[in-house]
């Protein structure tokens, strides 16, 4: 297949997937489409893993190495605002994070590898459901992913608006953060706004907590270790002339290690309960772990950087990029086997699309980077599983 036809094919796949988005664990049509394309390539396809997940296998030669290449497949619940002919046909759902492009990229890598057969070993193409809520990777693992389909390593990719189109970046260690959610329920005693002395004002108490939580980062954390605490919701049951009885604080934290996550949880609970106690209020503290941090292994980063340089040139590859506090379900896979996650540039301001971020109703994946991503994965396999 010529480069022009290859690019056209990947673009057609991407546009179909973009116009038929499905959210977490509902990706039935998406899964059927992917399975058909993979079977038409002659791959061995296994479906319904962790719900709607897929694993497709390709073995060439007698090499014993087994490498996984993963794509996420779900969309988000967002109404698309766009003018292109492949706009979402499913109201209220949209591929606003680029998973349509990720799927087309991995399909493209599968096509290149089935045609070239320039490696020796086994490649597993993994299409994971429910990345957005952070539940799909664990669902596949619980369904026996690594027992049924053993792998030595796993590799993934995510597009980054704001990066030059087709450039690739990664780093050793933590590249994307964990996400932990918290809920703090404060019960004071309501009173008339004119008589605050007759109540126990939970708004003042909650405000003390919100401010005090920020001291954890500045006074309990090593300044060289990144972490974030964000209070994102503040809800009361009061009215304009009545001090409420209850306040609800919600938010999340971001970090790169389990040790930091534990420290944040313990200090947040101690501070919240302590402030409530000295003010005579009740406190309920909840803390849940939603996303594991995405932590790359050094060996896998070396391979990924070498493959990327072979495809896009040394000047377009950053092997020690800045960490990103956003979260990725890929981190759950990396808690089980080594691997590497990379970013591919979706385009910067000079290309007129860098100001449209992920999860924006006007976002769209850059079709020009599809073949670059596919070639990167194909080159990675050739490097990792040489004949």
UniProtKB/TrEMBL annotation:
<dbReference type="Pfam" id="PF07687">
    <property type="entry name" value="M20_dimer"/>
</dbReference>
<dbReference type="GO" id="GO:0046872">
    <property type="term" value="F:metal ion binding"/>
</dbReference>
<dbReference type="InterPro" id="IPR011650">
    <property type="entry name" value="Peptidase_M20_dimer"/>
</dbReference>
<feature type="binding site">
    <location>
        <position position="158"/>
    </location>
    <ligand>
        <name>Mn(2+)</name>
    </ligand>
</feature>
<dbReference type="InterPro" id="IPR017439">
    <property type="entry name" value="Amidohydrolase"/>
</dbReference>
<feature type="binding site">
    <location>
        <position position="99"/>
    </location>
    <ligand>
        <name>Mn(2+)</name>
    </ligand>
</feature>
<keyword id="KW-0479">Metal-binding</keyword>
<feature type="binding site">
    <location>
        <position position="359"/>
    </location>
    <ligand>
        <name>Mn(2+)</name>
    </ligand>
</feature>
<dbReference type="GO" id="GO:0019877">
    <property type="term" value="P:diaminopimelate biosynthetic process"/>
</dbReference>
<dbReference type="Pfam" id="PF01546">
    <property type="entry name" value="Peptidase_M20"/>
</dbReference>
<feature type="binding site">
    <location>
        <position position="132"/>
    </location>
    <ligand>
        <name>Mn(2+)</name>
    </ligand>
</feature>
<dbReference type="InterPro" id="IPR002933">
    <property type="entry name" value="Peptidase_M20"/>
</dbReference>
<keyword id="KW-0464">Manganese</keyword>
<keyword id="KW-0378">Hydrolase</keyword>
<feature type="domain" description="Peptidase M20 dimerisation">
    <location>
        <begin position="182"/>
        <end position="273"/>
    </location>
</feature>
<protein>
    <submittedName>
        <fullName>Amidohydrolase</fullName>
    </submittedName>
</protein>
<dbReference type="InterPro" id="IPR036264">
    <property type="entry name" value="Bact_exopeptidase_dim_dom"/>
</dbReference>
<dbReference type="GO" id="GO:0050118">
    <property type="term" value="F:N-acetyldiaminopimelate deacetylase activity"/>
</dbReference>
<feature type="binding site">
    <location>
        <position position="97"/>
    </location>
    <ligand>
        <name>Mn(2+)</name>
    </ligand>
</feature>
């Amino acid at each position: 297949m010529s480069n022009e036809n290859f690019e056209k094919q990947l673009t057609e796949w991407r546009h179909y997937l973009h116009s038929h988005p499905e959210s977490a664990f509902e990706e039935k049509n998406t899964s059927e489409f992917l399975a058909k394309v993979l079977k038409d390539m002659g791959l061995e396809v296994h479906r319904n893993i962790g719900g709607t997940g897929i694993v497709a296998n390709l073995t060439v030669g007698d090499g014993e190495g087994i490498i996984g290449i993963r794509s996420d497949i779900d969309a988000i619940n967002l109404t698309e605002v766009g003018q292109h002919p492949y706009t979402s046909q499913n109201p209220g759902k949209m591929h606003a994070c680029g998973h349509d492009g990720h799927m087309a990229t991995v399909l493209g890598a599968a096509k290149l590898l089935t045609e070239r057969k320039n490696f020796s070993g086994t490649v597993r193409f993994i299409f994971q459901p429910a990345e957005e809520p952070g539940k799909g990777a664990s669902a596949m693992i619980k369904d026996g992913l690594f027992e049924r389909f053993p792998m030595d390593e796993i590799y993934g990719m995510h597009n980054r608006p704001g990066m030059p189109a087709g450039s690739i970046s990664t780093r050793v260690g933590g590249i994307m953060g964990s996400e932990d959610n918290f809920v703090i329920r404060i019960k004071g005693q309501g009173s008339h706004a004119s008589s605050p002395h007759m109540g126990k004002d939970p708004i003042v108490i909650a405000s003390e907590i919100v401010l005090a939580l920020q001291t954890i980062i500045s006074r309990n954390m090593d300044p060289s270790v990144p972490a974030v605490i964000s209070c994102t919701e503040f809800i009361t049951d009061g009215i304009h002339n009545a001090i409420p009885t209850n306040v609800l604080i919600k938010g999340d934290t971001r970090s790169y290690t389990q040790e930091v996550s534990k420290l944040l949880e313990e200090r947040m609970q101690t501070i919240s309960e302590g402030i409530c106690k000295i003010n005579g209020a009740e406190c309920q503290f909840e803390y849940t772990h939603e996303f594991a941090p995405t932590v790359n292994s050094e060996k896998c980063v070396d391979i990924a950087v070498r493959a990327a340089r072979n495809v896009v040139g040394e000047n377009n590859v950053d092997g020690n990029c800045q960490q990103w506090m956003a979260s990725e379900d890929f981190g759950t896979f990396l808690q089980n086997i080594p691997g590497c996650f990379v970013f591919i540039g979706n385009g910067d301001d000079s290309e007129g699309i860098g100001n449209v971020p992920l999860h924006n109703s006007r976002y769209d994946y850059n079709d020009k980077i599809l073949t670059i991503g596919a070639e990167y994965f194909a080159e990675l396999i050739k490097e990792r599983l040489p004949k």
